[in-house]
């Protein structure tokens, strides 16, 4: 995870303004997001790219962490995978027949699963809510717990991928450092269009032996 990337995002984001993701996604804003065909298309496109990186076997058992209204989960199910959809915001889990993909309202940093439960973990656009300030010890501890939980619930020879929007290069590197120091997972960042902020997609790829 040592490759150098340099970028700063000047535009203020919701995770900087709102203390909790549940403070941002509620009421009309939650409904508008969940019903957005544009957002569904964007997340499906990101999911397809995440699957290219993961190179999974058919009919894998996948945990969709921070699933929101289930855009990624729905696509994964449609192409033949077995999916568990998890999100902290229970209102999101009422959309799009998510009962077919085992929805669960829970904090992704404290997953209620048995060890070695999943062939893969996918998370789209959620990780940036966990660590936003590298000097905040509470945020760091939550990220450490997330890293350990991922290692615990993944099967041997399994994989995980997190697409997210870090505000700065230092935050991205700190997340990589936390995974490296607190788990035995092997990982690296995959960054598409690194020099184009409007088209840049950042993925953290992790593998468990």
Account of the protein in words:
The chain has 7 helices and 7 strands; from the N terminus they run ααααβαβββαβαββ. It has 209 residues and is of the alpha/beta class. It is 35% helix and 22% strand. It has one domain: Rossmann fold (3-Layer(aba) Sandwich), CATH 3.40.50.150. It starts with 13 loop residues before the first helix and ends with a strand. A hairpin with an 8-residue loop joins β6 and β7 (201-208). The radius of gyration is 16 Å and the shape is globular.
What's the short version?
By secondary structure, the protein is α/β, with parallel strands linked by helices. It has helices at residues 14-17, 21-24, 27-34, 37-54, 71-78, 137-153, 169-182, and strands at 61-65, 82-87, 103-105, 118-124, 154-164, 186-192, 201-208.
């Amino acid at each position: 995870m040592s490759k150098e990337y340099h970028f700063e995002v000047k535009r203020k984001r919701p995770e900087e303004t709102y203390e909790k993701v549940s403070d941002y996604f509620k009421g009309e804003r939650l409904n508008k997001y969940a019903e957005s065909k544009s957002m569904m298309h964007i997340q499906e496109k990101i999911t397809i790219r995440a699957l290219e990186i993961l190179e999974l076997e058919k009919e894998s058992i996948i945990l969709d962490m921070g699933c929101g209204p289930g855009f990624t989960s729905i696509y994964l199910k449609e192409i033949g995978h077995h999916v568990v959809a998890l999100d902290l915001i229970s209102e999101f889990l009422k959309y799009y027949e998510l009962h077919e993909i085992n929805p669960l309202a829970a904090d992704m940093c404290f997953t209620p699963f048995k060890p070695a439960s999943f062939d893969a973990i996918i998370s789209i656009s959620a990780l940036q809510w966990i660590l936003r300030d590298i000097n905040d010890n509470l945020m760091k501890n939550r990220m450490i717990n997330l890293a350990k939980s991922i290692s615990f619930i993944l099967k041997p020879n399994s994989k995980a991928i997190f697409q997210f929007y870090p505000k700065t290069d230092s935050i991205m590197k700190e997340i990589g450092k936390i995974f490296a120091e607190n788990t035995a997972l092997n990982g690296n960042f995959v960054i598409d269009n690194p020099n184009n902020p409007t088209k840049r997609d950042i993925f953290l790829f992790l593998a468990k032996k």
